[in-house]
Each structure stands twice: as structure tokens, then as C-alpha cells.
Write a structure and sequence with these properties.
Layout: H1 4-9, H2 16-26, E1 33-36, E2 44-45, E3 49-50, E4 60-61, E5 65-68, E6 82-90, E7 105-109, E8 121-124, E9 153-156, E10 166-167, E11 178-180, H3 188-196, E12 201-205, E13 209-215, E14 219-220, E15 231-232, H4 235-246, E16 249-256, H5 260-270, E17 276-280, H6 290-295, H7 303-312, H8 322-327, E18 329-335, E19 338-339, E20 343-349, E21 354-359, H9 363-381, E22 391-396, E23 410-411, E24 417-425, E25 431-434, H10 443-446, E26 451-455, E27 461-462, E28 467-472
Parallel strand pairs: 6-7, 13-16, 13-17, 14-15, 17-21, 19-24, 22-25
Antiparallel strand pairs: 1-12, 2-12, 3-11, 4-10, 5-7, 5-8, 6-9, 18-20, 20-21, 22-28, 23-27, 24-25, 24-26, 26-28
Helix pairs in contact: 2-9, 4-9
Region (Disordered): 131-155, 297-319
Pfam families: MoCF_biosynth, MoeA_C, MoeA_N
Function: Catalyzes the insertion of molybdate into adenylated molybdopterin with the concomitant release of AMP.
Length: 474
């Protein structure tokens, strides 16, 4: 992290890459825990899972029909069906050993039922008369309504070969096979496999618990009536939704007023349920930038004092007041060479050194900052290998509705990496168009964007028809 002196003098401007590298160096994957399968969805498996029993564990029917000896059907035809004696039913869930299929015999069998001894194939019911003595059957009669119960005779109109319509034991996976490798992200198919081999839980890196907190006395909650000078709090909702989309368990805290002591107390209350804290607002140079006021006092301590605090961090914070707990921290407030999102903060806070990222308050700045810095941090804590949104190249086209005259090229301040909202069209020749202006308060345009157009630090003008870097958000 940057030195206190460097930040105090404002001597250093961080690049986007430097700030992100600093975050990812400090953020560690969460310790593995055992979770029930549904709770483990989306998490990263930390152990190799082997198959304890074959899947399927026994030969079973893939059709509703009749379990037979294939040799008894080899001359069967529509004109001269094979006539077999039905000896009973084999239902799914039965042991399959109650009946033995001998020569000239057949057993009605249901999908998933074990193949009875003596049988080596299954004739689909549609290839028979269903025991009615009439033409081909379209379905199997219910057990209670079957002619003569489950006895009588069945006429088979087509021959089957050995093992036809039989799912062989171990045909899916065999005992001892590797079911899933460590590092696998558990989605629905993987959870299906784990449950199919009898695993009720999995050892995974859990989803990080992310607390999202917005600041500003001007913020009202949606549903409330706006007073003079107020606006609705959109940032905490946007960032909570983005954190959830990234894979986190999210706790959204209502807006905190511009009071440093109130903010300290709120952060202290939230630390108990946070693996990561994200604040928005209050990190610039204004007189009411409460996040900086609440968290910068630690930066005034001598380095040896911070080292002493680090040694005591594991002792807990029982009995300490909010200010003491919050001061058990090291948070750097930085200027980044980017637009929007120049003011940023990052550090650790509280007795467990919980990571905290402080984002600017303008809605677009806040969201762009989340995508660049918070989302990768969340995914790193989950142990995921793929931390970042996809990045592609696309042809830059004028915005829709630009008219007949081509608008002026996109411009960007020299030395800053600019992120503009855009709409992306894929295909053989990907294209991207700007949407909305460059103002960091224009949240309406953000709602229609599915990409960020990236103009590097060395680019001051991007011409229409040229190729640009695009971060895909969807």
C-alpha cells in the first residue's frame, strides 16, 4: 500500500492497474467450509471428489416395457409376433430379484427399475400389444388395471438385441472415478452429480459476506417522500445488486448521514457480519466527506504504532468503543488516473483486518469502480480463477440517433484511463456505440449500457470506425 507521507502530500497518482494489484495482493481467499449442496451452489470446490459407488448402481431399464430374453424375440414381427407369458411387474424402487425371467417369459418393467435375473433386454411397450391382444400399444396400462393383474400374455412385434434399452451398471461413472476436480465451480449439473453419488455436502470456499454502505445526509430511501435538497439512494442498491451478481452474500445498509462518529459506529456494528466492506461517497476533498474524516485518523499514527496494533489484532475488540475499533485499521485514500472514479480508498479495518473499499459517490463513478475493483476482489475471496469481466475489441460507431452529420470524435483527458458507457453488438465484426454523456451522475444512460468503452491513458481522441477495447458487463 502507499505510504502515509505520499498520500498526505498528494505526490502520487495511482494507475488503475496499480490500485487493482494492491487490492488483489491484500485480499485472500476465504477459508474452506463444509456446506450443504444447495448452499454450495456457485462456490469453488476445494477437494477432489471420487465416486464411492457406480452410477447407475445396477442394470436398469431406460424404457417402460417388458424385460425379456433377447433370444425369445429374434424372430418376432408384425405378422408373427413372439408370444411371451407375463410373470409380474418390476417397479422402480424394487430390488429386482423377486422375479426371474426364464425362457418364453417376460416381466413388465418401468423406467429406472432394476433388470430382473434372466432378462438381458427390454422391449418398449410400443413394440408390443401391451397384453391386450389387440394392435400395438401406445402406453402401459396401470398396474391396477392391467389385464389379469400383471399376468397373461404379451405379443412382441419387433425383435430386440441383447442389452437393448438397458442402462448398464457403471455406464455413467464407475466406483473410484474422479467425479469433480478441486477448483470446480459448483453449478446445477455438478450439484446433481454430487447428490447422485450420495454426497449431501461439499467442502468449498464460501461466498464472501459483503456489506454495502452509502453515505450522505442528502440521501433518502426509495419509497420515502423527498425533502428539499434530497435525492434517492441508488448507489447502495446498485452495488448490493452488483455484489450479489458477483457471487457474494450481500447486506445493504441504509444511507448514513454525514457524521463521522455515526459512520464509525455503523461500521463497527457491521464488522461482525462482513468479510468485505464497501462504502460509497465521502472520499473526495469536500468539507463533508465523512468517510475520509472517519477513517484517516489512523494515517496520522506513527508506523511503529500501526505495527503494535497489528500484533494485537488477534486479541479481539471486546469492550472497545466504535472509534477504537474503527481505528484498528489502515486505509489509504488515493487519487487514480481514471475517469470516472478518481478518488478511491482501500485498506483493512477492525480486529480481523476486514478489507474495506471506499468508492466515490457519483452513481457512474461508483458502479465503474465496483466493476474494476470490487468485483475482482469478491471473486478472489471465493477462490475463483476468472476474476474479471470479458474484454474484447470492437469497432467504435457513433451513438444511435446521432443524425446525418457525424458527431465529433470521443475525447479523453491525457494521462487518464477513461471508461464510457456503451452498447455492444457481437458477431463476426463486433461493434460498440456510446450511450449517454460522460458525466458521472448520468445514471439513466447507465441503465441502457451493457459495456464499458475503454480509452487508455495515452489516447486523447477516438475516431469513429476505429477499434477500441470494450469491457462486457452482461
Amino acid at each position: 500500500m502507499s505510504s502515509t507521507t505520499e498520500q498526505a502530500t498528494g505526490a502520487r497518482t495511482w494507475s488503475v492497474a496499480e490500485h487493482l494489484d494492491d487490492i488483489l495482493t491484500a485480499v485472500q481467499p476465504l477459508e474452506p467450509i463444509e456446506l450443504n449442496l444447495l448452499d454450495a451452489q456457485g462456490c469453488v470446490l476445494v477437494e477432489q471428489v471420487t465416486v464411492p459407488v457406480a452410477l447407475p448402481p445396477f442394470d436398469n431399464s431406460s424404457m417402460d416395457g417388458y424385460a425379456v430374453r433377447a433370444a425369445d424375440t429374434e424372430r418376432a414381427s408384425e405378422a408373427s409376433p413372439a408370444v411371451l407369458t407375463v410373470i409380474g411387474d418390476v417397479a422402480a424402487g424394487s430390488s429386482g430379484t423377486e422375479l426371474t425371467v426364464g425362457p418364453g417369459r417376460a416381466a413388465r418393467i418401468m423406467t429406472g427399475a432394476p433388470l430382473p435375473p434372466g432378462a438381458d433386454a427390454v422391449v418398449p411397450v410400443e413394440w408390443t400389444d401391451g397384453g391386450t391382444g389387440a394392435g400395438p400399444a401406445s402406453t402401459m396400462a396401470p398396474h391396477s388395471a392391467a389385464p389379469q393383474g400383471s399376468g397373461g400374455q404379451v405379443r412382441v412385434h419387433r425383435p430386440v438385441t441383447p442389452h437393448a434399452h438397458v442402462r448398464a451398471r457403471g455406464g455413467d461413472v464407475c466406483a473410484g472415478d474422479v467425479a469433480l476436480e478441486a477448483g470446480t465451480v459448483l453449478g446445477p449439473p455438478q450439484i446433481a452429480l454430487l447428490s447422485a453419488i450420495g454426497r449431501p455436502a461439499a467442502r468449498v470456499r464460501p461466498r464472501p459476506r459483503v456489506v454495502v454502505l452509502s453515505t450522505g445526509s442528502e440521501l433518502a430511501q426509495p419509497g420515502e417522500e423527498l425533502a428539499a435538497g434530497q435525492i434517492y439512494d441508488s448507489n447502495s442498491f446498485a452495488l448490493a445488486a452488483a455484489a450479489k451478481d458477483a457471487g457474494a452474500i450481500v447486506y445493504r445498509v441504509g444511507a448514513v448521514t454525514d457524521d463521522a462518529e455515526t459512520l464509525r459506529a455503523t461500521i463497527e456494528d457491521q464488522l461482525i457480519r462482513a468479510d468485505l466492506l464497501v462504502t460509497t461517497g465521502g472520499v473526495s476533498v469536500g468539507a463533508y466527506d465523512v468517510v475520509k474524516e472517519a477513517l484517516t485518523s489512523v494515517a496520522e499514527e506513527e508506523p511503529e504504532e500501526r505495527e503494535g496494533e497489528a500484533a494485537e489484532a488477534t486479541e479481539g475488540a471486546v469492550g472497545e468503543d466504535a472509534e477504537q475499533a474503527v481505528h484498528r485499521a489502515h486505509v489509504d485514500f488515493r487519487t487514480l488516473a481514471m475517469q470516472p472514479g478518481k478518488p478511491q480508498g482501500f485498506g483493512t479495518i477492525g480486529p480481523d483486518r476486514t478489507p474495506i473499499l471506499t468508492l466515490p459517490g457519483n452513481p457512474v463513478s461508483s458502479y465503474v469502480s465496483f466493476e474494476l475493483f470490487v468485483r475482482p476482489a469478491i471473486r478472489a475471496m471465493m477462490g475463483l480463477a476468472d476474476l474479471h469481466r470479458p474484454v474484447v475489441r470492437a469497432t467504435l460507431l457513433p451513438p444511435h440517433g446521432a443524425g446525418d452529420e457525424e458527431p465529433a470524435p470521443l475525447t479523453s483527458p491525457e494521462g487518464k484511463r477513461q471508461f464510457l458507457r456503451g452498447t455492444y453488438t457481437g458477431g463476426e465484426r463486433p461493434e460498440v456505440r456510446p450511450v449517454g454523456g460522460s458525466g458521472s451522475h448520468l445514471i439513466g444512460a447507465l441503465a441502457h449500457a451493457d459495456a464499458l468503452i475503454v480509452l487508455p491513458e495515452t489516447v486523447t481522441e477516438a475516431a469513429w470506425g476505429g477499434e477500441v477495447e470494450v469491457v462486457l458487463l452482461g
